[in-house]
Amino acid sequence: MSNTNDKTGVVAISADQGRIDYAAERARAQFDVEEMRAFLLGGPDRAAKMALAYRIIERDPILSFQLEGGHPFDLTRPELRAKTMAQLRRVVEVRRAFKDKELDDLFLTAMCELSESFSMRLFVTEALFVRSFRLFGTRAQQAEWVPKILAWDSIGCFAMTELGHSSNLRGIETTATYDAANRDFIIDTPSLMATKIWIGMAGETATHTACLARLLVRGQDCGLHWFVVPLRDPETGRLMPGVTAGDVGAKAGRNGLDNGWIQFTHVRVPRDAMLARWAHVAADGTFHAGLNPEDADPANNVSPAAAAGLAYAGLIPERLEITRGIPMMLNQALTIAVRYAAGRRQGPAGNPQVLDYPSIQAALMPALARMHAVMAAAGAVWTTWHAMEEGGPNVLLQGLPDMHALSAGIKATVTWDGADILERCRRAMGGHAYSRYNAIADYIGDYGVMTTGGGDNAVLVQQTARYVLAMARKAMADPAKFAAAVAPTDSVAYLPSAVALAAEGTPPAVSDWTSLAQLHVVLQWLAVAKVQALGMSLAAAPKGGMTRAWNAAHADISAVAQLHTHQYLARAIRIRAGDLPPTTRDSAASPAALQPTFMHLARLYLLDVLRQFARDLLLHGWAREAVEQLDAEFADACATVRDQAMPLVDAFGHPDWILQAPLARADGDGYRAYLATIQNAPNCFGPPKYWDAEVRPLTAPAGRSRL
Amino acid sequence: MSNTNDKTGVVAISADQGRIDYAAERARAQFDVEEMRAFLLGGPDRAAKMALAYRIIERDPILSFQLEGGHPFDLTRPELRAKTMAQLRRVVEVRRAFKDKELDDLFLTAMCELSESFSMRLFVTEALFVRSFRLFGTRAQQAEWVPKILAWDSIGCFAMTELGHSSNLRGIETTATYDAANRDFIIDTPSLMATKIWIGMAGETATHTACLARLLVRGQDCGLHWFVVPLRDPETGRLMPGVTAGDVGAKAGRNGLDNGWIQFTHVRVPRDAMLARWAHVAADGTFHAGLNPEDADPANNVSPAAAAGLAYAGLIPERLEITRGIPMMLNQALTIAVRYAAGRRQGPAGNPQVLDYPSIQAALMPALARMHAVMAAAGAVWTTWHAMEEGGPNVLLQGLPDMHALSAGIKATVTWDGADILERCRRAMGGHAYSRYNAIADYIGDYGVMTTGGGDNAVLVQQTARYVLAMARKAMADPAKFAAAVAPTDSVAYLPSAVALAAEGTPPAVSDWTSLAQLHVVLQWLAVAKVQALGMSLAAAPKGGMTRAWNAAHADISAVAQLHTHQYLARAIRIRAGDLPPTTRDSAASPAALQPTFMHLARLYLLDVLRQFARDLLLHGWAREAVEQLDAEFADACATVRDQAMPLVDAFGHPDWILQAPLARADGDGYRAYLATIQNAPNCFGPPKYWDAEVRPLTAPAGRSRL
């Protein structure tokens, strides 16, 4: 419906063109969108339950945004806070009627898709706070606390970070001093720098916190432990005596969440406020390291040293959440950007769809592929983690080093990639992404914390690289022994074969650019080549200069962690593509009808990651011609996925009221919806309140009217 | 002042440590900070005037933020709008008393440093709106309008972009139809997609707009021209009849600026509303292309075709503003990030300053160098542009192709780099950048528009690359003729020598890594190598496939434009370093005492840019060992600049009340200031207003109090 204006000769694009273009895009689908949707959600039953969850939210004026006027982006911070807490309360009410655990899960997922602030409020209490009891609490403590937290009888937060110590737990200064005479602990913030800060829900709503503090017993430092400390009166919301806490105020995003700061001044909590699974203080003031006798189970006993290690395991699920949280947000951003690009026509040569430009394809198509790789990996990591948790402390301990390194690598790699993808989505929408009404701007604001919060990426990649380095050394020293010791789903399982390949001296050539296996081998080889280079540069460090050499190697450390993570993700998406058989700790293979689509996505994913590291491929001996071929294959793979881009984002299944981006309306009528949204904004048509005070004195000092 | 806690053994960092660390940083200065400051501002006189300008603003409760409570980041959108307009009105009042043009300029610069929203409001009227008269208006129109705009008697905006046509002026649909019977034009918006949108100041305040429309005379399309159209009654702010205009609402940033949208419905404007310098419509309805006889000047006459070209010259200054606007914002962000990194101590090995980590140095130091290169180039491009404007139409026309391509390349390259640098600043501050009180978050929000607005970067790099490609062909065809025809300050002046170098077949080796000349030659060689590769890939396009081949070459096009731009910027910073003699159209050399510092910055700049294109260096035959050496030299250059980082940001001279980032207080007492800012935020200590409605029903349904 582009038409040439009779008078001007200008080829004008009609606002109706979007509907036509969207229909044409959907006609290109080479897979069944509903089948893909159901697969991504875990089956047709779950898809039906998700549809029900959406219906429950859409029709509830408290849960949804659109029934109350549909302008969530114009809410002030206090309004957003109230709305988000109202959603939480309503969610608690709605869930009481649920008889179905899956519906409950999917209902929460849908709410988290709708609001990042809601998602974080929920996560802080039901994941972080509950998990601190499950990991660090005795059975009795779990039995006492977990049910009332899940009923939101107590609203809890997770006070770890201090003003002076973000990622360095060793520096934690808050103290918990045992007073044997009174059989209680005194919690205290000794300095300004020890102020707990950025604590979600501590700003306005939490009644309790789990607080990480240094335990002092009889003048001895007994290490870091968790304590439950009341913050506010559950009835009035007034701060408890000795608790100085407040809101952190204006933030880049998530303004519906009340991040806060806390200072404790001589706050007494009872002896059972210490989460005492892995260590406890007897009433007489004797400190006992190791599994609490109350939880004694000879089969699962662990040493005090191991218990200390387990205390850090609590951070792993937060990192693994990334595999669900990032696609939850970025699939929406990609839906918006892809739909915009499909509905936007621009350019000198016949106004093509923006989606037809190779530059836009190169920006958005690999992003779709990366998100599918992350979703595939989510199944594998969570299955593995749940098996570790359920296996008891010794099973957990055995799996911890690999899971710790992998979760750190995933958190860093996926959140860095996500920041990059969001910026591409923004740029793909031109100026219209600057309007908050198209949602991307708020995703970017909300997202700001992802690369630095929950463990700074720059620190996490060091944890991953250190582990991979140690494992590579073992694999080089005795490949057979190493291979026998690792499970096929361990993140380091590829090391023996990749080490052998690296030893050949010739970089692996790609003879078939459609072979996922060949591309995957190159990725694994490069990971090992980078690890070996890192090892060599560290080995050359002078005596006493190891810390300096390690810090200087930051770029290689980062590359090792990312390559290692990507080769793990690649396995997961290859399984979805039917290219590798899954084990019990992997994601499931996809239905046969979907496998060709996953093949395209997996291929693009691998090509894109290799291209990201093209400089390293060349430095480690890959031929220039191979990199040029890589570029050509990448462009080809982008064009292939481009044809399926609209069906792929349709299969994410986000309704318009979740996306909240009028320009990306599913029916293609975006421009009308966008302008209508703008026109319905508060006081769109003015004059503004400040006209008489600030404008008129300039433009009409003597009272001239032009009307 | 780190001290070991007696009880815990924890090495705690005192909040007083910042003062000590800042003093130590400043003691490292190898140049005089005041001398650098004066040089960057254009001399000691100008530095003194800037200090006065700061004093005027700091003490004025309307202009500044801090006197009214110091919480600008907590203002709502309506409050920000009113504040920004109040600042504008106050600025008009203050300037009436000025007798000094330099003070006036510096005063505006200082205000623009303080507020991006203010800056854009000022820019829209005093730059865009005024410039449309200066470029497209007759002398009579200029004489009538420019004084009253500069007095803010009329508030003007610049209505170019339409909803359906962002970067493609050929698609503009708004019409201006000449009605000979009534001797006026009828301005009309024919469709939804022709709605003018994103127009700064059109949302609430503009009384007039310059409107780009397609001129229709006697049924003939006479091309695009500019018309002055009243929008609002200057007395009441009511919309003029036929004008439908409103605010675009919530945006990612710049919420003190009222971006708007406009639809015209049969709006009549008089014949002299057409800006008629380059074409006009006689009263009888005859369209005349070419210089208006009213402006006749035989020496400066231009052809109608040339006049059409000049109509687009209006976009160039907006692009060149980037060379001032980006450092204005990013130098502040870098000041904040560098001071944070100097005052933050963190890490297992003795809590070093974060600034001592090579990863942080690699993020922030090249950013300082890039901003100095941009500032150096600002002098050159503006000198050249002013000479072109003052030389009359023929001089302007002669210089247009080079300036057009260069300005497009600068806009794209510098704004892409700026987005990257802002994200690095954010990440260097860890979680604390997520607080809006540390300013970076708002810079990122404000910045969102830079890469897509004022010409989408993806389009601009094509303009630059197309020009460089054409010029390289000429330089290859007849190097001597080409060299004789270009001025030494033309952006393409390097082509003959670089083409000759490329013809030798061996990539230029670097024998002295401290030689700016050698590094610059590599950059120029790579630019030509990429241009030639681009030309070859286009030459291989099948018949009729040129558009397709061009679009497919997007990555090379982008690289060519960026390399071309960087080699121009490199010349400017080499001149500052005393490494090249300046011509009359270059930036000035710096005082001898500053040249060693500029040498370090210029070296780091060149190394950083080459490193950015390491993949291309390798693909075009650079040795692997050279790239490895490049990495080592880069790390070394970062460490060298790191020692001067604090003096360098001090020399930007931004007072604390401009930076508005308590953690980056100049005196090093950031943590106390940060916490005090948080504690002074509205309703920090709660309980929140929604407690009784939304929290208490969960936590105290039966009315339990824990107090």
General description of the model:
The structure is a homodimer of 707-residue chains. The first copy, chain A, has helices spanning 17-27, 33-41, 44-58, 77-96, 101-114, 116-136, 139-150, 304-311, 315-320, 322-343, 358-390, 393-428, 440-447, 457-477, 479-485, 495-503, 516-539, 546-552, 554-576, 595-612, 614-619, 624-643, 645-652, 656-659, 670-679, 691-699; strands at 2-4, 11-13, 156-159, 175-179, 184-188, 196-200, 208-217, 220-230, 243-247, 259-264, 267-270, 279-281, 287-289. Chain A has 707 residues and is α+β, with helices and mostly antiparallel strands. Among the domains of chain A are: 155-295, Butyryl-CoA Dehydrogenase, subunit A, domain 2 (Beta Barrel); 455-631, no CATH class. In chain A, the strands form four sheets. In chain A, strands 3, 4, 5, 7, 8 and 11 form a six-stranded mixed beta sheet that branches. A three-stranded antiparallel beta sheet of chain A has the order 6-10-9. Chain A is globular. Chains A, B: One of its GO terms (biological process) is fatty acid beta-oxidation using acyl-CoA oxidase.
